[in-house]
């Protein structure tokens, strides 16, 4: 069985293709959204999901979140006594989802389709694939998130002829894809995006209000305060979507900081972020050679599209109301399950075919002959243009600059700038050239971009027929094979909190978080309730624990009803 | 008669339309797994893309041939990158962005150059209160205004627009079609220009400003230098000197030179270069004119009165097709080859081709580049 996984910035989901339809798989707590949070418990065991998220405020030094943003970068986070790379933290989330899927399906799960933002780079894609490997999952396919959303959406539109746009504003990334569907063929025409723009940035803009309204800059160094502030800002953001006004209310060193905000003020605050939404959409529309009037529908996905201002903006941009009826948090995972069904050649999907594009321009460095006869190096010569359908393979011939040149250097770059210095260097290859006949014929450079969005470069010396291959592994984030093996070993010996007691552990983490937020008498009352539950857990009497857990949950709910820090169950 | 290769692969007859092409592709693509057989997928994909381009071209040919004369105010034919979709466009206020572009041109003319970046920022803010197509449409009109020299302070406008409209992105310029090619030519020529000594560039810039203000005898005598610059950087120079100024400069110099006949040989050569440059600017009109004429208030604006600007474009396009074959030079005498290369190079310099999209027979040949 191949499962589909949406590995998100704020939360992740796993789904499977079952009985001819995509189906979301619940986690140990019975929900389908598992927060992309990883923490280390007091006893050194790893906590993933809701329990870790609850501990963000109480144990910020032992908990990590939002690490998808650092995928493919050398940055690491220290949890307890060990440093973790984003790949490893993601691997722990994937491992938890894998366990959920195995419990639900009753069979081992070793293969997965994992979704990535369409605008993820080569390094970020490789990091995602590595995360799968570290979690013991063979990543059958890296699927672009807006394409996944389109697959779930297109399932209901099969047979019709339509052009639509997917507007995917997730927790940490923004993607736009334009798709065309005909005769059961779903074709991505163009994708564009911003890897550093998501719902999280809107939350941060609210949180920053605290600093403009009395919180000292020094407070930024207090991780507990920052997590409390983030949680409060998140609540304000949701409340603004629901009721149109809310107030940010946090305490720092006994001082209360309170900022009232309404929808209009929020929109003004978020204007710089809203402005950044235009560019990727404009770009995708132009690349697809399409105008707003040519689109049959606009599909919103990603939790951040719940914000009314995003919906209003999309409506104005396209002159039509966006399509609704899909849960924006779930649609990507559903699409990943559809892709899993396609991969398993399921009968129900017999008529459906999907093609995707590579959103980046890939090319090499060339020397240009200037008008005055001199030569200038450093120019970017595209080999694969952005938004070419994948898999794609293109050859370009390059000649040596001088007739007595002994070698030729092929640099591989990704980007849009005319000069290579402004693009991302992916790797390079130096080929010796022999003097004599055919020297001037130079080399054929072939770029091959596969369905997963990974690049391979092959260089053939025209005169001799000699072939060299370049495996793109450059970049400071690259891990050599021994390092991967070592990290895999290290991860496999980590103690993971047992799945069957995760629910109680999560309840306890939630109670601790509430305890920190409360003051005075309610705090003392909660302390007594926590103590009672801990005593019940210590008895190891399953019947007693189950009964007390129920009572404990009810008292927590009662407290949360009176408290505005209640986390939304859908986050 | 043999079928075009793309129709052959798709198993289609010569009269196949777009729907038939899509159906044939949809049927064929189901039989291929792109992950395991990428080569077969690529062959099919190439055939499909070629067939669709072919169908689109057929559609356009049919559409335009039924619609001559195209250059009227009532024309609804889209611009170079737009799909012809006259039924759908009335709902979109295309005229709004044209009006905004001309308002901007008027503002630029009335103010000092320093204010241009801020004026453009204000317009971008306004555009972003509109629908998604608006900024792109405005950008196209702006390129036309600069290329057609219908706006003052062109160098400053170009520089301000360059950063705001992402003209540094190769993919963006590619998607802009011919307008993108023109922008790219300007950028390339600017790079070449910047390799010249700074003090000489400064002196020339002062000269341009003087010439734009008044073409007196002190300025006129520099025409040979300017003619040479104009041959090397025609598009870049167009940002600093109006086509009319160049023509008047040349004419003024000719009148002066009538007294000194031994210079005449060099003069003829430069005349040709100057005309080529003006034609290249005029050539842009053929793609831009439809859009600009949509607004009734614009129909009265005279375009550069260069005879049949489209001709250069057409000739260059024909030459391109000819040279893009691998056997383009087969069976030709060396002098014929040279003549072809010189013509090709002229097209390249006039901004008809971007170096990267030049026909395969020309690009690697550095001889032609130096000529």
In summary, what is this structure?
Chain A has 15 helices and 27 strands.
Feature tags:
heterodimer; A: about 575 residues; alpha+beta; Nucleotidyltransferase, domain 5; Substrate Binding Domain Of DNAk, Chain A, domain 1; 6-stranded mixed sheet; globular; B: about 375 residues; mainly alpha; 4 domains; about 65% helix
Give an overview in words.
The complex is a heterodimer of chains A (about 575) and B (about 375). Chain A is α+β, with helices and mostly antiparallel strands and about 575 residues long. In chain A, strands 1, 2, 3, 4, 10 and 11 form a six-stranded mixed beta sheet that branches. In chain A, strands 17-12-13-14-18-21 form a six-stranded mixed beta sheet, with helices on both faces. In chain A, about 35% of the residues lie in helices and about 30% in strands. Chain A is built from 15 helices and 27 strands. The relative contact order of chain A is 0.13. Chain A folds into three domains: about 1-200 and about 270-355, ATPase, nucleotide binding domain (Nucleotidyltransferase, domain 5); about 360-480, Substrate Binding Domain Of DNAk, Chain A, domain 1 (Sandwich); about 520-560. Chain B has about 375 residues and is mainly α. Chain B has four domains: about 5-60; about 90-190, no CATH class; about 195-285, no CATH class; about 310-370, no CATH class. Chain B is built from 19 helices and no strands. In chain B, about 35% of the residues are buried. The chains are: A alpha+beta (about 575), B mainly alpha (about 375). Chains A and B meet through helix 9, helix 10, strand 20 and strand 22 of A and helix 2, helix 3, helix 8, helix 9 and helix 19 of B.
């Amino acid at each position: 069985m191949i499962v589909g996984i949406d590995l998100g910035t704020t939360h992740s989901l796993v789904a499977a293709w079952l009985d001819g339809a995509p189906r979301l798989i619940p986690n140990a707590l019975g929900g389908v959204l598992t927060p992309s949070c990883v923490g280390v418990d007091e006893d050194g065991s790893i906590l993933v999901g809701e329990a870790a998220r609850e501990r963000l405020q109480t144990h910020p030094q032992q908990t990590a979140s939002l690490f998808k943003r650092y995928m493919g970068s050398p940055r690491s986070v220290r949890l307890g006594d060990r440093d973790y790379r984003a790949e490893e933290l993601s691997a722990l989330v994937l491992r938890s989802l894998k366990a959920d899927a195995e419990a639900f399906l009753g069979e081992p799960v070793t293969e997965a389709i994992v979704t990535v933002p369409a605008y993820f780079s080569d390094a970020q894609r490789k990091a995602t694939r590595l995360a799968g490997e570290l979690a013991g999952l063979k990543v059958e396919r890296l699927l672009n998130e807006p394409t996944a959303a389109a697959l779930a959406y297109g399932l209901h539109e099969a047979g019709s002829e339509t052009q639509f746009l997917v507007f995917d504003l997730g927790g940490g990334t923004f993607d736009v894809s334009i798709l065309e569907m005909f005769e059961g063929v779903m074709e991505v025409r163009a994708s564009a995006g911003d890897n550093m723009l998501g719902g999280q940035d809107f939350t941060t803009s609210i949180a920053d209000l605290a600093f403009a309204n009395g919180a000292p800059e020094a407070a930024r160094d207090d991780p507990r305060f920052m997590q409390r502030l983030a949680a409060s800002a998140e609540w304000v953001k949701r409340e603004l979507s629901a009721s149109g006004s809310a107030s940010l209310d946090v305490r720092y060193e006994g001082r209360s900081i309170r900022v009232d905000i309404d929808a209009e003020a929020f929109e003004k605050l978020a204007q710089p972020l809203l402005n950044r939404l235009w560019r990727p959409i404009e770009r995708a529309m132009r690349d697809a050679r399409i105008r707003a009037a040519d689109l049959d529908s606009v599909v919103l996905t990603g939790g951040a599209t719940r914000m009314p201002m995003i919906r209003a903006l999309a409506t104005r941009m396209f002159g039509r109301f966006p399509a609704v009826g899909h849960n924006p948090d779930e649609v990507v995972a559903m699409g990943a399950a559809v892709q899993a069904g396609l991969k398993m050649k399921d009968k129900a999907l017999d008529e459906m075919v999907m093609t995707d594009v590579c959103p980046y321009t890939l090319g090499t460095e060339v020397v240009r002959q200037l008008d005055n006869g001199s030569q200038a190096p450093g120019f970017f010569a595209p080999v694969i243009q952005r938004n070419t359908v994948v898999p794609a393979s293109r050859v370009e011939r390059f000649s040596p600059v001088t007739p007595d040149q002994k070698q030729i250097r092929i640099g591989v770059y990704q980007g849009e700038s005319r000069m290579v210095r402004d693009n991302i260097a992916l790797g390079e290859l130096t080929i010796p050239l022999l003097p004599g006949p055919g020297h001037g014929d130079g080399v054929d450079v072939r770029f091959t971009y596969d369905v997963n969005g990974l690049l391979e470069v092959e260089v053939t010396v025209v005169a001799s027929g000699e072939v060299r291959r370049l495996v793109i592994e450059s970049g400071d984030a690259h891990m050599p094979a021994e390092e991967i093996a070592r990290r895999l070993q290290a991860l496999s010996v980590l103690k993971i909190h047992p799945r069957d007691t995760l629910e109680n552990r999560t309840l306890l983490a939630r109670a601790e978080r509430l305890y920190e937020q409360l003051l005075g008498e309610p705090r003392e009352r909660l302390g007594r309730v926590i103590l009672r539950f801990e005593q019940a857990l210590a008895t190891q009497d399953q019947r007693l624990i189950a009964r007390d857990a129920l009572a404990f949950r009810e008292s927590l709910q009662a407290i949360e009803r009176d408290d505005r820090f209640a986390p939304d169950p859908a986050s | 008669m043999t079928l075009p290769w793309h129709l052959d692969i798709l198993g289609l007859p010569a009269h196949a339309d777009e729907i038939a092409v899509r159906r044939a592709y949809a049927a064929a693509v189901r039989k291929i797994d792109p992950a395991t057989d990428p080569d077969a997928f690529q062959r099919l994909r190439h055939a499909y893309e070629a067939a669709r381009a072919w169908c689109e071209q057929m559609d356009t040919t049919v559409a335009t041939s039924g619609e001559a004369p195209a250059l009227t105010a009532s024309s609804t034919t889209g611009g170079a990158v737009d799909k012809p979709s006259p039924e759908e466009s009335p709902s979109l206020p295309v005229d709004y962005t044209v009006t905004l572009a001309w308002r901007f041109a008027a503002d630029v003319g009335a103010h000092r150059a320093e204010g241009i970046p801020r004026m453009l920022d204000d317009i971008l803010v306004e555009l972003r209160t509109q629908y998604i197509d608006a900024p792109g449409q405005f950008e196209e009109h702006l390129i036309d205004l600069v290329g057609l020299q219908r706006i003052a302070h062109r160098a400053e406008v170009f520089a301000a627009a360059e950063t705001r409209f992402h003209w540094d992105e190769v993919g963006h310029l590619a998607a802009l079609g011919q307008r993108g090619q023109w922008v790219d030519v300007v950028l390339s020529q600017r790079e070449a220009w910047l390799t010249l000594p700074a003090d000489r560039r400064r002196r020339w810039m002062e000269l341009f400003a003087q010439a734009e203000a008044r073409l007196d005898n002190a300025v006129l005598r520099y025409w040979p230098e300017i003619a040479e610059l104009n041959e090397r950087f025609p598009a870049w120079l167009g940002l600093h000197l109006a086509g009319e100024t160049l023509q008047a400069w040349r004419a003024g110099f000719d009148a002066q030179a009538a007294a000194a006949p031994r210079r005449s040989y060099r003069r003829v050569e430069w005349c040709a270069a100057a005309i080529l440059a003006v034609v290249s600017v005029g050539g842009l009109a053929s793609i831009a004119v439809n859009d600009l004429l949509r607004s009734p208030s614009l129909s009265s604006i005279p375009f550069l009165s260069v005879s049949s600007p489209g001709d250069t474009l057409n000739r260059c396009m024909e030459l391109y097709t000819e040279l893009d074959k691998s056997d383009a030079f087969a069976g030709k005498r060396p002098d014929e080859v040279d003549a072809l290369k010189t013509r090709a190079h002229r097209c390249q310099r006039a901004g008809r081709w971007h170096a990267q999209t030049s026909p395969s027979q020309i690009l690697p040949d550095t001889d032609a580049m130096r000529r």
